[in-house]
Every structure is written in C-alpha cells, then in structure tokens.
Design goal:
Number of strands: 13
Radius of gyration: 21 Å
CATH architecture of the largest domain: 3-Layer(aba) Sandwich
Strand content: 15-25%
Oligomer: single chain
Largest sheet: 7 strands, parallel
CATH class of the largest domain: Alpha Beta
CATH topology of the largest domain: Rossmann fold
Distance between the termini: 11 Å
Number of domains: 2
Length: about 400
C-alpha cells in the first residue's frame, strides 16, 4: 500500500476546501494510506474530513500561517514573526512601486520563503506528497517523498507573483495539477517550461451529496422573501468581485428593478468595505450578507439566478454546485469562464464589468424562457465526475 501525504492550510469554509473534502471522500483507501497535514486544525469543514484519513498533529511553527504578526510574536515564534514583518513591508512597497492591483500573492510568497529556515522538516518518508494549496513550499522543501505533486486552483495570468521565486519552487515537483484546461493554459503562459508536467484534474463533485444538503431544514430568511432573488457564494475578497456586485445592484435599482434582492453567502477580509458600500448605496434591505455557512446549498436552492461576479477564477466550485441544483447561472467573462459553463447552454457569460453584470442580470430577469432553458439543460447534464480521480491514480 502506497503512503500518501496531502497538505493544505486548514478547513475553513471555501471552494478549495470543499473540493479537497470531495476528493478525500471519494479516495481509494484500499490501495493508498493517506496522511493529511493541515497547518491549523480549524474550520467548519474539519468534521467533514473522511475518517479514513490520518490527520497529523499540528506543528506549532506551521500554525502561524493566517495568524496575525502580534499573535506570532506572543507565541515567541520570533524568527517567523520578523520574517512576516519584512515580507509585508517589502510586498507593500513593491506593490506601490509596480502599482499592483493586488499584492497579497506576492506577500504570501515572501512569507513562506523567508520563514523556511524556521520551519521543521517532516521526518516521514512518503511515496507521494501532494500540496493542495499554493504556495507549495512545505512539500517542496520540507517533505521527503519519491514523487511530489502540486495543485493549481487559480488563474495565474491575473495574479502578481515573483516568477523567478516561483520557478525554483515549481521545479521541485514531478507533476502540477490544474483544475481546468483554461487554468492550465494560463499557468503555462507564465511558466512555459513546465508543459510536460501539467495535467488537468477537475474538482471532484458529488451531485447526490449537494442535493441532499440542499434539502436540509434550516432557518432561512430567503424562503419568505418573495422578491427576485440573486445568490452568490464566495469569499469576500477582491478576486470574487463582491464590490462590483454592490455597484451593479445599485445601478439596477436606479433603472427601476426595485424587486431584486442579492444574497451573498461567505465571509472574508473585505467584509467591512462591502458593508460600508451597502450602507452608502442605501441597499441594506436588498444586498444581504448572510455570513459564513457550512452548508450554502439551501440558500442556493432558493435563488432565482446564481451570479458569480469574480475578477478571476481557476474554476469556481460554487458555479458547478449551482448547476447541479439546476439554477440559471450568470458568470463574468474571467479568463477561465469558458471552461466553467457552455455559454447560452448551461449558463450565461457576461462582460467582466459593472455594466456587464447589470446587462446580464437584466437579460435573465426579463427573459424567463431563457432562464428555464438554462435550468432544463442543467437538469439533463450529469455533473458527477469522481472518475477524474483515475487521472490522479495514474500518476501516483
């Protein structure tokens, strides 16, 4: 039996974490013994991890990720704390010089690279080690494995990274897994030397599980809302474009669409910004943040349309889940959009702008026949794809 390590950050509510749970729930445990290394044992999805997985103990130095610098210094992890301070200052400075729209990815790279001297190595020998979330320094530098695999969940053409720094890391891996063909091509446009290493394995989805969870009885205020309901499930971050969603709803109200309400399931660092925008736009009764939900599917189920207003995606797990629930789906034309939906068949792609979101919603709102056609096509489509794991077994 081969010994496998899978590493990720934690089990907070998110698309990457949901896809990892699905993969673990469908894994072949008769032929593989799986250790799961989570840097922190936290998150609402932690209880959903398969009991066939061996969850490794926390290592104090790795729990510092996603903690504040103040917390790290209180824990007397001074080397990691100082490396974080340096990384933040340098990333912020370079972000201003280069006018980066989002310098967070570059800061994350620096955090890991500068902290490496203070992070312990794993003493276990593995047949295969899988790093499920970028940056992949733990598996690249601190794990002994005969074969190493890294996962890509984002569109690398849209994020600012230090390419030379990343190249050294990617070279440590035997295979690189992209979650969509478009995600693969975006990656290769930036890191072309790895063409022979990259394969596509789509996020594993379980339609039966999603439909069962959608029928769970919860206290859902949406049920009593008779307005036209839009739903988005996403982290409150720049990438997901929730700020543009607020601006789009304001414009729709100004155009006379007074009965539209927009519900967002999710949480994140931009929550205060979004709440201020909602208040400034007088949308408190119609742009509603529902917060973090372990089970977002009953809210999706109540939607008249599902909208993904993202600026970029690798492949949005939630879009596929909305299709499984037979919802009319509207997504912005981010780089990988065409790998997500068949435009006009099981979803509708609109221009990636505030006006584009407004026009797309108007079209679906005013065309019930189009909405029903999208629903019918989703019902006819089999979104089950656990066979994707066979691609992984081939390289294990």
């Amino acid at each position: 039996m081969k010994k496998i390590l899978i590493s990720s950050f934690d089990m907070e509510v998110g698309g990457v974490e949901r896809s990892l749970i699905s993969m673990l729930n469908n894994f072949d445990y008769e032929n593989y013994a799986v250790d799961l290394m989570l840097y922190r044992h936290q998150g609402d999805f932690l209880d959903l991890v398969s009991n066939k997985v061996n969850l490794l103990d926390e290592i104090p130095q790795y729990t510092t990720y996603r903690k504040s610098i103040g917390e790290i210094l209180k824990e007397k992890q001074y080397g990691i704390g100082l490396s974080r301070i340096f990384s933040k200052i340098y990333a912020d400075l370079l972000g201003k010089i280069k006018r980066m729209e989002e310098s967070g990815y570059y800061q994350m790279q620096l955090m890991w690279k500068n902290a490496l001297p203070f992070l312990p190595k794993s003493e276990i020998q593995y047949d295969v080690a899988i790093s499920y979330l970028w940056p992949h320094y733990f598996v690249a530098e601190k794990v002994n494995a005969k074969r190493k695999i890294a996962w890509i969940h984002t569109d690398f053409s849209t994020v600012e990274t230090d390419i030379q720094m990343d190249l050294k890391m990617w070279r440590k891996f035997d295979y690189i897994v992209a979650v969509s063909e478009a995600c693969k091509m975006a990656f290769l446009n930036k890191y072309g030397e790895f063409e022979n290493k990259v394969i596509v394995i789509e996020n594993i989805t379980s339609p039966e599980f999603i439909r069962e969870m959608a029928n769970e009885k919860i206290d859902n205020l949406m049920i009593k809302d008779n307005r036209f309901k839009i739903v988005t499930v996403a982290r409150l971050s720049h990438a997901k474009g929730i700020d543009n969603a607020v601006r789009a709803l304001k414009k729709l109200k100004e155009k006379g669409y007074l009965d539209i309400t927009w519900y967002v399931v999710g949480y994140g660092g931009d929550e205060a910004l979004i709440l201020d925008m909602i208040k400034d736009s007088n949308l408190e009764d119609s742009f509603i943040l529902l917060g973090k939900k372990t089970n977002p599917y009953p809210y999706m189920k109540e939607a008249d349309i599902y909208v993904q207003p993202s600026r970029y995606e690798g492949k949005a797990v939630t879009v596929g889940e909305a299709q499984i629930l037979s919802k009319p789906v509207l997504i912005t034309n981010y780089t990988t959009a065409k790998s997500q939906v068949k435009d006009g068949v099981d979803g509708y792609i609109t221009e990636l702008s505030i006006e584009g979101i407004v026009r797309g919603i108007e079209k679906l709102y005013n065309t019930p026949v189009m909405r029903q056609e999208l629903v019918s096509n989703c019902i006819k489509t089999n979104y089950s794809n656990s066979v994707e794991l066979n691609k992984l077994y081939k390289i294990l």
